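A.,

Following up on our hallway conversation. Structure tokens first:
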């Protein structure tokens, strides 16, 4: 191969030499031979250098790379970009050896990447920094039949949640989280906070979070939309709530011990960009306790309450609350137009737990909305009883630290050849608006099935029989019907 290359180069050189006008002298021929010999020597050096470079990179890289400690073998290797475009020059043995050496060098540096719930978690070599992308995709379809009003018999689709975000830590104590939701085809900032955490004593620690915070209020009201056992939270969680909703901008210190936690939240309004008037003010507290807590059994007790002061111009108390499914805008329990609120006070209790694969939870709450001009309080009352049974033997996804539901730990993932986790659920809930000119009352009974393919992917189906009695709005009087809803969800 080398001789062929040199011969080709020599022919090209000779072919490129201009013809002599006359017969050269001996001196001319000697000079020409010396020039061609120099060119041939230069070409030989270039060819030998190119061939040496194809076989030597792994040796050079190995001599420059630091020694890899034995512990580094446990650290996952990081993929290295190919030195050439793969569609043009496939990597040969030498290139693959270089990649392995580079990966070993990265592993030896201590930088690691672990895969959790579908997305990587990055850790710096010294443990000072961590970073994780977050995501949530919940897609729903719903159909309603049986209502005496044709405008309520709808089939709709919607994105319950479409979120992107991130979370991370700096050092041992500082942490942060940010999420944006696009589910209504609009940009909506949801969770966005910074925090500090530390240990007070063995078995007791705290954290303080500052920013746009999710309420710690009621059992399912404190559970994320991607973790609820039904497609929609209970009437207690959706109706016994501050006027500002599930989020507020403020501060939340939390205290944790082995069998429970307590939190206090002080917030203004949601993120709205309006600084022309004072914010409403909300103070909210919650505590839960697990008097029984073992590997397969938990007893849950909880109590919570809030007080909210409403500013003039921000005192509309009108409510249209979900009773038979989120994605039917005509199927709501309504108060009619209600203005002149000066504040709200709400409170509730929680009682439940699980034993093995079976769980049960009851909640009840009441909310008093204070009205101006000496009018009596507008009162909202709600209660619910929910339960579930994991046919596959998995434990309910109860989070004893926060007293809420989280992501399940599926014993046998579908992606590992198992059946996943299959859960049967049932719920009854009741809601009423009282002591107003246009009172309303409704209830719903739900049967459901959840199939968790793994710990972060699920299919859910809910069959709901509902009843409403509205005295305001388009759909008044007694009405009932059925709603069938389904969801596919992925949480990262």
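Then the amino acids I'd put at each of the 492 positions:
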């Amino acid at each position: 191969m080398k001789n062929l290359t040199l011969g080709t180069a020599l022919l090209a050189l000779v072919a490129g030499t201009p013809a002599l006008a006359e017969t050269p002298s001996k001196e001319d021929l000697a000079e020409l031979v010396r020039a061609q010999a120099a060119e041939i020597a230069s070409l030989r050096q270039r060819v030998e250098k190119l061939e040496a470079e194809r076989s030597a990179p792994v040796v050079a890289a190995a001599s420059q790379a630091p020694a890899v400690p034995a512990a580094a073998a446990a650290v996952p290797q990081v993929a290295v970009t190919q030195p050439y475009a793969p569609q043009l020059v496939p990597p040969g043995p030498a290139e693959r050896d270089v990649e392995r050496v580079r990966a070993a060098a990265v592993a030896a540096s201590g930088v690691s990447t672990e895969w959790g719930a579908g997305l990587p978690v990055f850790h710096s070599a010294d443990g000072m920094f961590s970073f994780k992308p977050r995501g949530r995709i919940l897609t729903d379809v719903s159909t309603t039949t049986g209502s005496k009003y044709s405008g309520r018999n709808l089939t709709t689709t919607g994105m319950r949640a479409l979120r992107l975000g991130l979370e991370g830590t700096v050092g041992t104590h500082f942490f942060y989280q940010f999420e944006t939701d696009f589910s209504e085809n609009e940009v909506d900032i949801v969770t966005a906070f910074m925090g500090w955490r530390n240990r007070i004593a063995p078995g007791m620690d705290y954290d303080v979070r500052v920013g746009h915070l999710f309420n710690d209020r009621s059992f399912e009201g404190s559970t994320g939309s991607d973790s609820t056992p039904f497609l929609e939270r209970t009437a207690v969680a959706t109706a016994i709530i501050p006027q500002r909703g599930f989020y507020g901008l403020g501060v939340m210190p939390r205290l944790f011990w082995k069998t429970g936690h307590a939190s206090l939240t002080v917030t203004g309004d949601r993120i709205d960009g309006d600084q022309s008037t004072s914010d409403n003010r909300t103070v909210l507290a919650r505590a839960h306790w697990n008097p029984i807590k073992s590997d397969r059994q938990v007893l849950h007790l909880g109590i919570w309450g809030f007080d909210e002061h409403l500013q003039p111009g921000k005192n509309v108390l009108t409510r249209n609350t979900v009773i038979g499914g989120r994605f039917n805008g005509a199927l709501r329990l309504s108060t009619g137009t209600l203005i002149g609120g000066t504040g709200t006070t709400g409170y509730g209790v929680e009682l439940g737990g699980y034993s093995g694969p079976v769980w049960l939870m009851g909640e009840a709450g009441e909310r008093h909305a204070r009205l101006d001009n000496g009018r009596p309080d507008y009162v909202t009352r709600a209660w619910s009883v929910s339960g579930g049974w994991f046919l596959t033997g998995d434990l309910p996804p109860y989070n004893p630290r926060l007293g809420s539901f989280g992501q399940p730990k599926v014993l046998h993932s579908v992606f590992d050849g198992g059946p996943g986790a299959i859960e049967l659920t049932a719920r009854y809930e009741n809601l009423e608006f009282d002591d107003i000119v246009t009172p309303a009352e409704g209830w719903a009974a739900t049967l459901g099935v959840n199939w968790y393919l793994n710990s972060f992917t699920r299919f859910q189906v809910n069959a709901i029989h509902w009843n409403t009695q509205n005295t305001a709005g388009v759909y008044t009087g007694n009405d009932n019907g059925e709603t069938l809803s389904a969801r596919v969800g992925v949480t990262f």
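Residues 1-22, 57-90 have pLDDT under 50 and may be disordered. Curious whether your intuition agrees with the design.

B.
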